Amino acid sequence: MEKTQFKINGKRIYERADELGLCSSPGLGVTRLPFTPESLRCEALIEQWMKQAGMKVWKDGVNNIIGRYEGKDPNAPVLLIGSHLDTVIEGGKYDGMLGVLTGIEVVQTLFNQGLVLNHPIEVVGFCDEEGVRFHSTFLGSRALVGTFTDEDLQRTDDAGITLEAALINAGADPSSYPLAKRNREDILGYLELHIEQGPVLEKENEPVGVVSGIAGVTRFSFEVSGKAGHAGTVPGRLRQDALAGASEIILFIESVMKKYDPLVATVGKLTVLPGASNVIPGFVKGTLDIRDINESRKESAINEIMEESRKISSARGIQVKFEEVMKASPTYCSEEFTSIAEQSIKELGGRPIKLISGAGHDAMAMAELTDVAMLFVRCKEGMSHHPDEACTEEDITAGAEVLLSVVLKIANK
Asked: Which of the chain's ends, N or C, has fewer CB atoms near its CB within 10 Å?
């Protein structure tokens, strides 16, 4: 891709990602849970780099770190750029981090040029998006939106430590979390750059893509109850094999996924009981995760799965029960912002590729507050949440160039 009139230092972003990757507990990849010594080391570096880019820096009551680059009109609505700084267990060094580092580099570029835009810009490093430690996603972005609650403060990690105590230990004042809430009229929009976490851009041979929306997700737990029996004495025609029934249902789920493409459906966990090599399985418990940007299509797929499961259970003499445990609606990115991003990619010599995000991002929460847009950057083999997660310096630079172009078009209008 061609360059903008301002020079982005992609090498600096690349090297800083390496440096933040060292802020990790021991083990493979990067493990950085929120409000830990590792996260505090990471935040100290982010604060240092924000200040070097001419930003005023502070933390709010849930330990989000925010850097503000003032605009010509300090009272004008602010353009937010952000992503998260926490990771999964043994994850990679670009998921989340890349969006924060790229936002800082965009502001650094403006600062180096002495360029002040009409609207202020704030770069946000959200404290907790992954939800690994306290089992609730988007804690940081929900504080800005205003959907964080007192009940959230009482969430506990696996060691029994409350979120409130963890925040206090990290030097935050959790009682002040309501002050993190932003008003819709004070926000111009929210931009998030993220690695794709999928293989499409690599297949299309493009470094940067535009996200049109984030898929809604419905999650179920399910149970299949049959009848355990001796593996050698119960004839095949008389069996009520729970695992065989579950397998038939799973294969049907796969066929529904292919029928309703680009919908995706995943049975990610199975427990088989009694779990002995010489006993017919009598009980299976599992999970089903279904995602699609089109809510009505997703509901049609779910209805087909439920109906076929009833038929399978009747034919096999087993019982099947599904329980919905989570549901999130799709998020649609701003058409105006998406169009601006596509224009920027074209101007920089690229080919705009529209993508649907199957993974959740802070933009999902932020969409309740303001217009949102997302850029995806190509990652090696589409791999993410893995120690081998990788991006090239060239692709990172390309993504930052597009983000800068988008910021100039939105924040200078």
From this structure: C
CA-based R_g, the chain, Å: 24
Q: What is the pTM of this model?
A: 0.87
8 Å CB contact between 62 and 172? yes
Q: Identify the sign of the CA torsion 155, 157, 162, 165.
A: negative
**What's the CA gap between 310 and 303, in Å, rounded?**
11
Report the distance separating Cα 97 and Cα 86, nearest Å.
8
- Residue from 385, 361, 363 nearest 372 by CA: 363
Q: Residues 296-308: pLDDT tens digits?
A: 999 999 999 999 9
* Residue 91 DSSP one-character state: B
Query: Looking at the DSSP assignment, which residues form a beta bridge with residue 68?
Result: 56, 122
Maximum CA pair distance of the chain? 83
CA dist., res. 248 & res. 269, Å (int): 16
Residues 112 and 123: their CA atoms lie apart, in Å, by 17
Residues 41-72: tens digit of each pLDDT: 999 999 999 999 999 999 999 999 999 999 99
Average pLDDT of span 159-181: 97
Q: How far is the C-alpha of 225 from the C-alpha of 220, rounded, in Å?
A: 16
